[in-house]
Amino acid sequence: MAQLDGICAAVRTEFDRVDEAREEALATSRRIIRNAATTIKHVHRREFAEAAALLAETKQMAAELIAGVAGFPTIAGAGFVQDALKECAEALILTAVVRGEDVPLPAEAGLPPAPYLNGMAEVVGELRRHVLDLIREEDPARAEPVLSTMDDIYHAIMSFDYPDAVSLGLRHRADAARGLVERTRGDLTNALQAARLERRLADLRARLPEDTS
Q1: Which end of the chain offers a freer environment for a tag, N or C, measured as fewer CB atoms within 10 Å?
Q2: Model-wide pTM > 0.70
Q3: DSSP state at residue 168
């Protein structure tokens, strides 16, 4: 085993490369997740200029992350990398939907398909929050197209029947999305019915003669 020292030295050099790439990817992933969360917060507050600036930064970091792990398959497939890309996709898709813009294709967004679809699935929860905000603002009519989008997303992601190893758990997120869509449908139906009743009562009050006694 005279060559043992050489074997260990070669392996150690490779492990050092992998470890350095992993640490860099981990740090970048954390920044992406923070930026994506802040972008989503800005979108819900209708602070679209701030959201757009932060989203551009997040997309750039996602591109750097993908490039940085390209030569390291074990890192590229790691959960923390896929989660970061998923969060980037969620912020990107939510911004487009709320602003009424076209949702980019995964290739246009520079994101792999599986985390992109999982990010789309999680947008359903953020859109539910958007619907509830509109209901609280007494504007349920504007929430109807949002619910329709939620329903479209659910049916789209349900069409992908692949193992978790391929879809990264998309089926579980699709099941969660179904419950969110149905609860939101119930909330919005109640709000629309209440709004119609209020309009009818207001119309009835306007038709009643004034009390002159």
Answers
A1: C
A2: yes
A3: S
CATH number, domain 21-111, options 1.10.3720.10, 2.60.40.730, 1.25.40.10, 1.20.58.2140: 1.20.58.2140
CATH number of 112-207: 1.20.58.2140
Q: Compute the average pLDDT of residues 91-96.
A: 97
Instruction: Note the pLDDT of residue 199.
Output: 73
Give Cα 40 distance to the centre of its chain: 8
Q: Which phi and psi (to 5°) does residue 177 adopt? A: -65, -35
Closest CA to 110 of 73, 78, 62, 71: 62
Nearest Cα neighbor of 95 from 132, 43, 147, 172 is: 43
Residue with tokens 């119930």: 186
Q: What are phi and psi of 105, to 5 degrees?
A: -70, 160
